[in-house]
Amino acid sequence: MNTTILHPDIQDFISQNSSVSITKLALQKNPFPEVDWILILNQIEAKTKAKDKLPTWFKTQNIIYPSKVSVEQTSSEKTADYKSSLISGKTLIDLTGGFGVDDYYFSKKFDIVDHCEINEELSAIVKHNFQQLEVENCFCHADDSENVLKNSEQKWDWIYIDPSRRNDAKGKVFMLKDCLPNVPESLDFYFEKTDSILIKTSPLLDISAGLSELKFVKNIHIIALENEVKELLFEIHKNYTGDITLKTANILKEKIETFEFILDNKSEFPSYELPQKYLYEPNSAIMKSGGFDEVSTAFKIGKLHKHSHLYTSEELITFPGRVFEIEKMIPYSKNEMKNELLNQQANITTRNFPETVENIRKKWKIKNGGNKYCFFTTDKNESKIVLICRKIT
């Protein structure tokens, strides 16, 4: 870890230039010739990336940043904060500590947090930053987490793991066994050290694929930030054999939209309805969950079609997703499209529809944007329809 960048003049320079283009800065002469210019530029670029994602780090003095890739790959503060609310106890060990954002928030809920990071330089950076952030109950281990576990007699309340995909796994169907550490292979060993494990995976992982590789799964959490799925979490407890609950959260500026249901609950039967006054589109976390029938039964709203994943009701309800008022419904036909949408401006969404958004725009010369929202979909009678709507939320 190079601490020369902690010189007050260099830190001031980094802060003052945190919003300046790196390409532009790189052409300038290094004002600190005793320090590698690339190192300073990396600090500026990484700090710029942290501004919105890691505001606590951005605002704290004398933070050292690793490569911008490490900042890009780490959890955001908002997802880390939410994640820390899901579990509790006295001790937690993070087997894949990285930049330490998750552990910063876990340290607020646990008495002791152990941060394992095999990259010695990154471990030293995290240790330094925790001091700047006044975190006193998080202990950094610059070692392979397997060694830390094997060399300790301790048992932790929780093990947290964020496995990274191996480079040689590119192009394959994404599986946990293709990651480091190989969690499915090591589960029995982990359960010698804890009774509870939280595994963070890529949002690209198929939920059923994760379930096929793991055992004792109690809860699955899907976390979205501003309607973009960021994390898929598997919560497993030693010897658990009950129902699996799937919990979704969409973190927005003013609120968190949550929804949960029992996986494979055979008693859920959706109702299918033709479009009524209001239209509902689930948020991305619910879309990832696959709980489409459960949405219909939980909110007592009709589903347009088995595969459309759009919902409708006569009375307006509070809903975890986008809500629209249907102003007009037209069949998808040449005459209707000419009369209603040719050469118009509209936001277009397709759900269970044979044509792409791009093709629809090109065919009917529809410009993007405006206050009109058009859903091209299929109703319960297998008719291709267009719902022209006004957005409510």
UniProtKB/TrEMBL annotation:
Give the Gene3D superfamilies listed for this entry.
Methyltransferase PG1098, N-terminal domain, Vaccinia Virus protein VP39
Identify the residues that the record assigns to the PG-1098 ferredoxin-like domain, covering every copy. 278-320
Q: Which InterPro entries match?
A: PG_1098_Fer, SAM-dependent_MTases_sf, Thump-like
Q: Which residues form the THUMP-like domain?
A: 321-391
Protein name stated in the entry:
Uncharacterized protein
Species whose genome carries this gene: Flavobacterium cutihirudinis
Traced from the root, the source organism's taxonomic lineage reads: Bacteria, Pseudomonadati, Bacteroidota, Flavobacteriia, Flavobacteriales
